[in-house]
TrEMBL record:
Residues 1-39 are annotated as: Disordered. Residues 17-28 have a biased composition (Low complexity). This is Methyltransferase domain-containing protein. It comes from Candolleomyces eurysporus. The lineage of its organism: Eukaryota, Fungi, Dikarya, Basidiomycota, Agaricomycotina. It comes from the Eukaryota. Residues 1-11, 29-39 have a biased composition (Basic and acidic residues).
Length: 297
């Protein structure tokens, strides 16, 4: 899965020309003279220039590297690029080409790998510098998803939690046992809610899909990704090390948004430093990936 937060729609009603035999990817390059129309550089980081998007993170190389870490970590944990009946839904059909839309495609890693795996399907990736966790009105998004999907089409959603935590059976409270981590994400999430109108948590999104009249056979799952090298399993230790590095990149990527909120540079640096140092000293931290797949009614 390509991003901290992806929604993939299979069997689109209006996904392009089904009779087309071309499966070659299409990429439109931005000319050098047009770059200022799409991107702004601030404090040596590159941001999208769309004035109304709530997405606060950069769109440059370090951020793309973080998205790749997330993709690789989750793929390794679940052993595939997808959950649910994707193989069945994308089975080759000579009478109807299968179409897949990847909303918020990020750096495109997921959609490119899936296109290589399912060569008879046609894949589309859409991204304007925002991801699902930064959509203010997810209910309206689900309405649009339902409009696009054929009956029987598949919704596959992957959303990352907005706060680190501990494994449920540990009975540890994040605010008490990792206060700097709690404070960092609490600060970020309050700014997102107050400034951008983004307040839904990933668990809330799963509940919205479950309760939606648009979908049947809803299946939800939580994947616990270790943060750090605390796990006894060598594979999970390697995953945790990579994911912790990605969380450090995430913290730095939020720096501009924190500054824009009115925090001083000293306050922002302390917030980020305390969080990143705590990830090295506190064992048992995890990030939860909430995976949902459902059939269009």
């Amino acid at each position: 899965m390509s991003t901290p937060e992806d929604t993939h729609l299979d069997n689109l009603e209006n996904g392009g020309d089904e009779s087309s035999n071309s499966s070659s990817p299409s990429v439109e390059s931005v000319r050098d003279e047009d770059v200022p129309r799409y991107f702004d550089e601030r404090n040596n980081r590159l941001y999208h220039s769309h004035p109304h998007s709530p997405y606060p993170l950069p769109v440059d190389t370090p951020e793309q590297e973080r998205l790749t870490v997330n993709h690789n970590v989750l793929k390794r944990l679940i052993g595939a690029n997808h959950r649910g009946p994707v193989d069945t839904v994308l089975t080759s059909n000579p009478d109807r080409r299968r179409n897949v839309l990847d909303l918020c495609t990020g750096n495109g890693k997921w959609v490119l790998e899936m296109a290589g795996q399912f060569g008879d399907a046609q894949f589309f990736g859409v991204d304007i510098g925002m991801f699902i966790d930064y959509v203010p009105d997810y209910r309206s998004l689900l309405d649009e998803v339902a409009r696009l999907l054929r009956p029987g089409g598949l919704l596959l959603s992957v959303e990352w939690s907005k706060q680190l935590s501990f494994l449920p059976d540990s009975n540890l409270d994040i605010e008490e046992h990792a206060p700097a981590t709690f404070h960092f994400f609490d600060t970020v999430n309050h700014i997102l809610a107050d400034t951008h109108g983004v307040s839904l948590d990933s668990a809330d999104i799963q509940l919205l899909v479950t309760n939606s009249a648009h979908f049947l056979n809803v299946t939800t799952e939580q994947i616990y990704v270790p943060v750090g090298i605390w796990h006894e399993n060598d594979v999970l230790t390697t995953i945790g090390s990579s994911f912790r590095a990605g969380q450090k990149k995430l913290a730095v990527s939020f720096k501009q948004m924190l500054l824009d909120s009115g925090m001083s540079a000293e306050e922002v640096d302390a917030l980020i430093t305390d969080f990143t140092e705590e990830m090295h000293s506190v064992e048992g931290l995890v990030m939860v990936a909430h995976i949902t797949h459902a059939e269009r009614a």
